[in-house]
Write a sequence for this structure.
């Protein structure tokens, strides 16, 4: 019998990793309190729970003026609108990210200009970004991917030189710090998602951290149907509509859940960080595995997912086969995003959507090359579930044991993977 669970052998771990989201009676009480209050919705904006969430979240990240809203995609669109960026402007985004980072500029009417990533961090390559700047470039969106942070010193240096607005996509970076400063408080805006997989969640939701009260008031107007908002919160005049906006308000029920999540967050973040350091050490000894570089300026790491890379030749299999095998061994695992130029959304010749066809000169993705993002996405990146860290040292040991076991049986797995590829034509 094979040693590998995917080929019928015994699983490395039969015990389930802890579920996400974590909840208890506090969440139920918090939601019940809002239900009983009768104040469920977000209007007038902000409601009491939403205002409390804004305060507590900016305390958690260590700065910024927080504007809670419905998700971590509109946060970026709203940031662009609040900064006056839209039609005809270009916004630089990295090639390795969720599509939202590039579709948010499109929703604001701007053009996402995609650049490659740094192979050591998988975050935006700032030199590539510098080469992509034109007179139309108005903003840059560095993404803090998985458990990494973009080089914010280089990003801010580039932004100052070219007068760019910086929107940090912090969908994965709750609690992260760069030189002791909270992610999302370094640029002009920090965009956070509270969607259900994120390390702080209200089911769905988002928070935009703004550098100034003026930007926060503008963002609040955009998400509150265009009503003028006073600096520091509250509506100036409920009947006056000053800017084009829509209802992107967070509900009080969601804010209540996020507030309980904030109570739990510090202990969870500490455990993830400690266990990830333990994982770094254990994985650094595994043949064919590359632990991603930790920049010493990245002083606090957060772990939406733990990303490592393999050298498929040295490890013996491609990342898709490793992930499938790890999953069978009992570890939640994913190959990660596709490189941006492979998204159908950005290929007018394939896309069922009309929007990208509006910018044919920008969307000749067949001609675009992002070799570092392509290598990560197509061959080497492995994204492990953060639940592994919430299972303590045993959780990490099991995952490392499974990775080693797969490496030791790579030849057999590779053969089986080749047969499957032949059978299913992939
Ligand atoms: C990097 C990144 N940016 C933005 C988003 C969008 O967040 P939301 O799903 O809350 O719109 C996500 C969500 O998965 C993400 O991973």
């Amino acid at each position: 019998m094979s040693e590998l669970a995917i080929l019928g052998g015994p699983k490395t771990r039969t015990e389930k990793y802890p579920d996400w989201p974590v909840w208890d009676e506090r969440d139920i009480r918090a939601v019940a309190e809002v239900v009983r209050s009768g104040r469920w919705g977000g209007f007038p904006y902000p409601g009491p729970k939403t205002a409390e969430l804004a305060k507590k979240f900016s305390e958690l990240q260590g700065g910024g003026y927080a504007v809670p809203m419905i998700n971590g995609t509109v946060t970026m669109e709203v940031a662009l609108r609040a900064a006056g960026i839209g039609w005809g402007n270009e916004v630089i985004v990295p090639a390795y990210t969720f599509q939202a980072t590039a579709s948010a500029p499109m929703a604001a009417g701007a053009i996402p200009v995609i650049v490659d990533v740094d192979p050591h961090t998988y975050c935006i390559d700032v030199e590539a970004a510098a080469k992509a700047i034109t007179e139309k470039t108005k903003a840059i969106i560095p993404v803090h991917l998985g458990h990494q942070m973009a080089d914010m010193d280089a990003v801010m240096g580039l932004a100052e030189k070219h007068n760019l607005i910086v929107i940090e996509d912090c969908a994965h970076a709750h609690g992260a710090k760069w030189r002791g400063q909270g992610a999302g408080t370094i640029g002009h805006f920090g965009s956070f998602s509270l969607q259900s997989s994120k390390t702080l969640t209200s089911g769905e939701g988002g928070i935009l951290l703004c550098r100034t009260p003026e930007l926060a008031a503008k963002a609040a107007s955009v998400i509150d149907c265009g009503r003028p908002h006073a600096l520091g919160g509250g509506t100036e005049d409920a009947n006056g509509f000053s800017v084009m906006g829509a209802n992107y308000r967070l509900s009080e029920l969601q804010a209540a859940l996020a507030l309980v999540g904030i109570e739990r967050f510090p202990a969870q973040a500490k455990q993830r960080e400690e266990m990830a350091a333990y994982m770094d050490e254990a994985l650094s000894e595994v043949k064919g595995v590359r632990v991603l570089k930790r920049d010493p300026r990245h002083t606090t790491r957060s772990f939406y997912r733990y990303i490592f890379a393999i050298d498929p030749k040295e490890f013996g299999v491609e990342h898709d086969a490793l992930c499938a095998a790890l999953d069978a061994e009992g570890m939640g695992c994913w190959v990660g995003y596709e490189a941006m130029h492979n998204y159908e959304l950005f290929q007018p010749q394939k896309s069922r959507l009309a929007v990208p066809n509006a910018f044919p000169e920008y969307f000749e993705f067949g001609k675009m090359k992002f070799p570092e993002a392509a290598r990560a996405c197509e061959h080497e990146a492995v994204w492990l579930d953060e639940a592994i860290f919430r299972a303590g040292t045993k959780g990490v040991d099991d995952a490392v044991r499974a990775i080693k076991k797969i490496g030791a049986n790579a030849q057999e797995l590779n053969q089986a993977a080749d047969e499957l590829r032949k059978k299913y034509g992939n």
User: Anything to note?
Assistant: The chain has two domains: 5-17+265-424, 25-261.
